[in-house]
Design a protein that fits this description.
The chain is an alpha+beta fold. The chain is built from five helices and four strands, in the order ααβββαααβ.
Length: about 160
């Protein structure tokens, strides 16, 4: 027959000493900050009133955030970021020589490292122009900004 053991009772003779002068209540401070900036709220509204046409001349002037890119991560709507530029590769998924699985792995995310490491030619890099939607804002860029990662073969 098994016996059940209960934890020993702990009796504190007095409350634990707490210094009130210099101690901050970090939990209360964090909760107050979260009330001001709610990190769990994501604006899922479509920022573009019309469909963005890839490869148009005005695409170079368009600014698209990573949050907006992350909303396009399905086989029917697939955007990726390569070298701080945003591309709509939805129509190219079936044509890609390496298959659509590898491209869908990076759907809605930055694919610069995967693109570079797979050894794409200059022709493949140039072919991206027809899928261009826009660029990331300067504060979200890694390559095309002052002090960013320097690579000699990034397309202009």
């Amino acid at each position: 027959m098994a016996t059940v053991q209960s934890p020993p009772e702990i009796n504190l003779t007095s409350a634990l000493p707490v210094k009130q002068e210099n101690d901050l209540d970090l939990v209360a401070l964090t909760m107050a900050a979260l009330r001001l900036v709610n990190p769990w709220s994501v604006d899922t509204s479509n920022k573009w009133s019309q469909r963005i046409e890839p490869g148009t001349p005005e695409a170079k002037d368009r600014v698209i955030t990573l949050a907006e890119v992350s909303l396009h991560d399905t086989p029917k709507d697939c955007w990726v970021v390569i070298y701080d530029r945003v591309y709509d590769i939805t129509d190219f998924l079936d044509e890609h020589p390496g298959g659509d699985e590898i491209m869908l792995e990076y759907a809605g995310r930055d694919a610069s490292t995967a693109f570079r490491s797979s050894g794409h030619s200059r022709i493949a890099t140039k072919a991206l122009d027809r899928f261009l939607l826009g660029e990331l804002p300067i504060h979200e860029r890694m390559y095309r900004r002052p002090g960013g990662i320097r690579l000699s073969d990034i397309p202009e």
